């Protein structure tokens, strides 16, 4: 005597033993999103995430680096002041006594020494701006608002420091006392003066332009967004290969 056979369950009660059995015809499982990691590696991310991994230092580190760059660039103004004092032309002055009072006037009224003083400072500041931008780019091949702000602010502070240092190193600003010291009718050099104060902007403007140009030409590139995955023929059975 044999045991009665158990009838199979209805189709709607059959258990699912695999993920693909319940898939409709033509169904293709979505591919997982792939992302770039901070170290440049290419790996699998979570579904629904299309963003790239964060790279570079944090904001605190960038601010700290920006402060260091600002101080380093500004200290370069001491060297600029020395070169300005050394290379700038001297404006000749002469003293005379008029009605028992000392009067100082320019010995060469048609000379362009005063223009040369401003031009020398401007050219040196442009060169220092380009060099400082190149140095920052070589040290930190990465953009960012803190670095750009540090380079610009450091250049402005460096120009101000160079201006004051050149005036301090140059001849005394008390021209009447200097005229009395050298004597009546004797030519002496005028103190260093920056007639065009706009020359103070030459350093930061040059640094900003050169740095942005270097970043545009040689800076790091963001990884291109991945396009859609190239799919082969759509499987007809829903689990990996078309039916023969």
Give the topology, please.
Layout: E1 34-36, E2 42-44, H1 59-87, E3 92-98, E4 101-106, H2 113-139, H3 145-169, H4 175-182, E5 187-189, H5 202-218
Antiparallel strand pairs: 1-2, 3-4, 3-5
Task: Tell how many strands the DSSP assignment holds.
Answer: 5
Low-confidence stretches: 14-20, 42-55, 225-230
Radius of gyration: 37 Å
Overall form: elongated
Largest sheet: 3 strands, antiparallel
- Helix percent band: 40-55%
SS element count, helices:
5
User: What is the mean pLDDT?
Assistant: 76
Side-by-side strand order of the widest sheet: 4-3-5
Strand content range: 5-15%
Give me the secondary-structure category: mainly alpha
Describe this structure in words.
The chain is built from 5 helices and 5 strands; from the N terminus they run E-E-H-E-E-H-H-H-E-H. The chain is mainly α. Helix 2 (113-139) packs antiparallel against helix 3 (145-169) and helix 3 (145-169) packs antiparallel against helix 5 (202-218). Residues 14-20, 42-55 and 225-230 have low confidence and may be disordered.
